[in-house]
Amino acid sequence: MSKRCSVCGEPVSEASEGPGRCAECGTSFMLYPPLDTPPEPPEPTRVGEAALTSDEASLSAGADGVSRICPCGATRETGQERCRYCNRPAAVEFTLQWPWGETVAIRSCYFVGRVPPAGGQLAERLEAEFPDVSRMHAEFFIEGERLWLRDFGSTNGTWFNGEPLEPFQPRILEPGDRVRFAAALEIVVSD
């Protein structure tokens, strides 16, 4: 059975397993081991070219239109408490709103910085527009169904609702909290 990154879902080669990192998102396989690829969910049965019913649409998106993805990569129904493929509890998901309008869903961890393991587009934008953000500035991670933030000892600091965050001391975040990286990069947390 093939393996996928537990964070971004990209296929993992056998050579990169173990102490390696995901080539796509930079996730450490020591912290988040790759997962077995779940079987493909069955396609909804449709008659002719009829539009999806509301029940069929709920298989791929919640009432708010956001897909619910288990860490194993399988899509789950809104309200489903456990994944039908790996039997894990339903994934907790938080959302970050960047000042340029992009919204990012966090399901396990998310790095902020000007170099990988921060996402390629994010790293490029920060390098070009926010050079005072450190190369490895901070990370968001989910633990115990809560969203946490940890500053990696960044040069210009991280602020939580206007208060400086102590380096390497995780802080629980709630929807509506504001986080600022360095002088001007501010985001809002939502659920």
The outline comes out as: globular
Series of H and E elements: EEEHEEEHEEEEEEE
Number of strands: 13
**Major sheet details:** 6 strands, antiparallel
Q: What's the overall average pLDDT, rounded?
A: 74
Unreliable spans:
41-67
Order the strands across the largest sheet as they lie in space: 5-4-13-12-9-10
Level-2 CATH architecture of the domain at 94-190? Sandwich
Account of the 3D structure:
With 191 residues, the protein is mainly beta. It has a domain at 94-190: Sandwich (Tumour Suppressor Smad4), CATH 2.60.200.20. 9% of the residues lie in helices and 25% in strands. The chain has two helices and 13 strands; from the N terminus they run βββαβββαβββββββ. It has helices at 54-60, 120-129; strands spanning 3-4, 11-12, 35-36, 94-97, 103-106, 109-112, 138-143, 146-151, 158-160, 163-164, 171-173, 178-181, 185-190. The strands form three sheets. A six-stranded antiparallel β-sheet has the order 5-4-13-12-9-10, with no helix packed on it. Strand 9 (158-160) and strand 10 form a beta hairpin. The protein is globular and about 45 Å long. The two termini are 34 Å apart.
Features:
mainly beta, 191 residues, 6-stranded antiparallel sheet, single chain
How would you summarize what this structure contains?
The protein has two helices and 13 strands, in the order E-E-E-H-E-E-E-H-E-E-E-E-E-E-E. The protein is mainly beta.
Secondary-structure map with pairings?
Blueprint: E1 3-4, E2 11-12, E3 35-36, H1 54-60, E4 94-97, E5 103-106, E6 109-112, H2 120-129, E7 138-143, E8 146-151, E9 158-160, E10 163-164, E11 171-173, E12 178-181, E13 185-190
